[in-house]
Amino acid sequence: MNVPILTYPAIPTGVQETSHRALQADIETIARLGITIVSLEQIVDALLSQRLHELENRVGLCFDNGSLADPENRADARETVHAGILKILDVFGRENYVHATHFVSGRGDHFASSADKQAWLSCDRSGLVKIESGGWLHDRQPPANHDAAMQEICGASEQIDSVLGPGYCRLYAYPASRYNDFLAQEFLPRFSSQHRLKAAFSTEAGAVTSEDNRWRLPRFVCGRDWQTTGDLAMLLKETRPRIQVAAAQPSTQPVADTRYESYSNIWDFRARNEQAAMAA
User: From CA 52, how far away is CA 44, in angstroms rounded?
Assistant: First the structure.
């Protein structure tokens, strides 16, 4: 049994309206295919209890890295990032049980923002979006020893827990998808009593299967793995063979739908930065 998880990278201020239209189009496509969006924690719990087969015709939905609030905090802003996400999810979530996850930075400039804290609370109270930890060392290499891992992983979760409640964070997304063998094979598996996490996510392309290591679960990324609703329908068809996608065809151009340009551009930008960092 395969359960795909769809991931949306953080979008800079100024192109949020475009990215919101892409998200709305995707959710409409998912609903039209008769697929239910479930929480990432539900997927992880099914994986750990060997019940992944019970999630037939299900997908996960999450948002990666960054602030949920408008970083400029302008009084005349049309909508903050979290307000736009909640508005879209609310249209479908009350009827179709949409439950998304947002991985946020637990420390640094984002945590210092009172607007972000309020955004986390709004998401949690909505019942539509669960806040989880996306770490905080986004401009550095992943921790390679116990003390550094405690600071990065446990420190980020504790900061979020201080706003949303003790023991709130149970999932972790590697910052910029950077991880190493020490984290995935030693620290996270051996010290669960200290970090209290259930699973960790990379952005390696793929659907979650019963054979996957829970400390490096794969996800599909908007802008990299699909760039149109047709692409998404075919991706879901490939990972869920029973889904009927009679009319859907993959796109023939890199970006055939302007609603996806912001996601495609931000993914290309991140990829270039990753290549530059590896070359340095």
Answer: 9
- The DSSP secondary-structure symbol of 126 reads H
Nearest Cα neighbor of 73 from 83, 64, 87 is 83
The confidence band for 173, taking pLDDT boundaries of 50, 70 and 90, is very high
CA pair distance 190, 210, nearest whole angstrom: 20
Helix (H, G, I), strand (E, B) or coil at 209: coil
Separation between Cα atoms, residue 105 and residue 111, nearest integer Å: 7
Q: For residues 9 and 23, what is the distance between their CA atoms, to the nearest angstrom?
A: 11
The length of the chain in residues reads 280
Angle at 175 between CA 125 and CA 160, to 5 degrees: 30
Q: Taking all residues of the chain, what is their mean pLDDT, rounded to a whole number? A: 78
DSSP E strand stretches across the chain? 5-8, 36-38, 58-63, 100-104, 129-133, 171-173, 199-201, 220-221
User: Predicted confidence band at 39 (pLDDT cuts at 50, 70, 90)?
Assistant: very high
